[in-house]
Every structure is written in C-alpha cells, then in structure tokens.
Amino acid sequence: MNGRPISGASVDARGRRERGSGSARRGRKGLTALVLGALLVTATACGGGGNAGSGAGGGKGKDSGEAANKQSQAVVTIAPKNGAKSVDTGGALKVTAAKGKLTEVKVEDTKGHEVAGTISGGGTTWTPSTHLTGATTYKVHAVAKDSAGLASAEESSFTTLTPQHTFIGTYQPDDGTTVGVGMPFSIHFTRGITHPAAVEKAITIKTEPAVEVRGHWFGNDRLDFRPEEYWKAGTKVTVKLDLDGVEGRPGVYGKQAKTVHFTIGRSQVSTVDAKTHKMVVKRDGKVIKTLPATTGKPGYDTWNGQMVISERLAVTRMNGETVGYGGEYDIKDVPHAQRLTDSGTFIHGNYWGGDAFGNYNASHGCVGLRDVRGGYDKSVPAAWFYDNSMIGDVVVVQHSHDRTVAPDNGLNGWNMPWSEWIK
C-alpha cells in the first residue's frame, strides 16, 4: 500500500478503515431496512412465511389459498363419446353426473336448434325428450356441481347416422285448406310401422280454441287424429310432423319434418233417410235445405253411419268392375260426385234415375241426387249440394238395411266410440 488514504474513508488509531460521513451511514442503513421490509411483505402475501401458523392472519390466508385451488368433485359423463359417428337417433344420447348434480345441459345442432330434455334421478341424469335428427351434428355442454357448490363442466360433439331406409307420411287435409267439421287428420305411411308409440309421439297437434285430440291406428300404416266430437266451427289446427330421425321399424327412419295448418269452416251435417228417401242439410245446426234422394236398392244397400266427404269430382267415371259388380254398369260421365268411402260409396248426381228420387231406392249403394247429363244446370239438387259442400263435411245415412260403415273405410272414424278410439 502507498500510504495514501482511500478517498471517502479515514483510518482510526488502530488502523481500521471507517465509513465516510454520518449521513452516508444513515442512508445505507435506510436502504437495507427498506429491502428487508419489502422481502417481509412479499413473503407474507405469498402465504405467511415460515411462522404463518403463529398468528390468526397467517392461518386465514393459508385456508383461503387452498379453497381457491380446490377442484369440484363432480364428474360429468356424456354418451355418446366425443367425436362419435353414425350415432342412433333414439336412446343413445345421455348425460350423467357422479358425486354431484347436473345444473345445466344444452344440446343443439349446427343451426342452433336446441334439443329439449329433462333432468331426473335427483339431478344425476339428463335425457332428451324427443328423438334426434338423422345425419346431423350435435354439440353438448353440461355442468354439474358437487356438495360444496363447485362446478365441473364437460363438452362433446357427435354426428347421427345417415339412414339407408326411410319412410314418409302422406296426409289429409292439405296445408292451408279449410275443411268441414268431420275432417280428421289422417296420415298414411309408406312403410308399415312396428314402433307406433315412437311415431305417434313425433306428431303433435295444437288447436285454437284448445280441444283434446287423440290418435288411433288402423293397421300399421295409417294413423288418424280427431277430437271426441265434431270440430267446433272456426277451429284452427296446427300439426307438427317431426318424423325426421324416428325409427318407425328396425333400420327404417322417418325423413319428414313439416308443419301443417288447416281451419275448420262452418258446420254442415246432412242426414239421408233411406226410408223416406230424403236428405236434410243442416248448417250450423239449422236446416237450410231438404232434397229428394235415392239410396241402395235391395241387395246393394247403402252403408249406415257417419261418413265424411274425402274427395270431390265435378265429373267422374263409375265402373261396376272396380267395386266387384262386374259389368252391371259403366257410366263415364257421372256429375257432381263426392266420395264417402274408400270402397266406392259416393253421393253424386244421377241423370238416369227417372222418378226414383224421393220415392224409392234404386242405386248400387251410392246416395243419388237428381241431376242432368253434363251437370250444367246449377238449380238441380245434385249441383246445389255439390256447390254448397266441402271436404270434411259429414253425411249421415240412417234406416238402411246394411250395417254401419267400418271406421277405417274412408275418413269415418266417427263410427268408433271414443272409449275405443283412445285405447
């Protein structure tokens, strides 16, 4: 060492080097205290340091941190698994929760249409209320909470099968039409149905004003819906056919999704008396016309019962061979014909019957009203009745010597008691 004092320092009598001025010493001590204080604050904020258990504040901070990091015990399971393909449209979708309860389940297709469903089993299970649509991708979002109220979520996506074999339904009445008070909603399926409950569930009917409407199966390919009594005039009916994806029989799925609207017009019920050879026409409960008529002659008696007009033809051909009567008749220009049964019963104009109308029965089972060949005269009974009728009007035949028409022969389910209809 060269003996020169170090700048900013002095040497005491024992040769020890001292720090500089008192102010400098205080500044360095203050800096040290500040750094130590900051470290202490940081340690406390992160969990209370090594001595956290000795004070109430330290213990509370530790409990709060554990709660924040705790995971829900609830376990959500979605079937089918994420990414599944060719999923069945019925019975495959199910959401369950273990160690907790479901609080939210949302299932929707790529267009945002949601699938309705219900949570059951005390919150442990969710199932759809209806079938799924074929060849459609669905997304599932489900949330469950455990006993501590902590939530657990799960999501999944899957695609339903593309049906190889399908069916549709053809129906009456047509969309947007106005029909008579006797008109049922009748649907014929292109394939025989072996799962009728699933198909019937997919058809919903709403009316205004509200009335109970129930379905009845005739065989395995026809389903008719009607109220207990004739419709009330003015009723508006909406039918939703949600058949797309319904398994109607093993491996055969519906491919139809359609909404049908129709309106019930005025009430018209006409009663034909086979003994008096007259037809009384009532509209809204009041007699508006009495017409002479003829019905089936002995051996060809007309059906008794309530029959609904299902088809209207200004002119048609009637050939006995088509209904099992051989060559007994073949009339190529029958005017003002309105169908009452599938088996060939009509109420129609008759220009060849002579004086039978109002006097005796002369037909092969139809109800005949006086007409002219060509149907040009609007004043004759057959023309008047045709012009004042509509699909769905009711024609009742009574006092004939034949039995009551079968409920499935035409749109004539009114001949079945309600107690049997709803079985």
Automatic annotation (TrEMBL):
- Which UniProt keywords are present, listed alphabetically? Acyltransferase, Cell shape, Cell wall biogenesis/degradation, Peptidoglycan synthesis, Transferase
Kindly indicate whether the keyword Cell wall biogenesis/degradation belongs to this entry.
yes
Give, as in the UniProt entry, the pathway in which the protein acts: Cell wall biogenesis; peptidoglycan biosynthesis
What SUPFAM superfamilies does this protein's entry cite?
A: L,D-transpeptidase catalytic domain-like (SSF141523)
Entries under Pfam families matching the protein: Big_10 (PF17964), YkuD (PF03734)
Q: Where is the active site?
A: 348 (proton donor/acceptor), 366 (nucleophile)
UniProt protein name: Ig-like domain-containing protein
Q: What is the organism of origin for this protein?
A: Streptomyces gibsoniae
PROSITE patterns according to UniProt: LD_TPASE
Ranges for domain L,D-TPase catalytic come to 268-398
**Where is the stretch described as Disordered?**
1-27
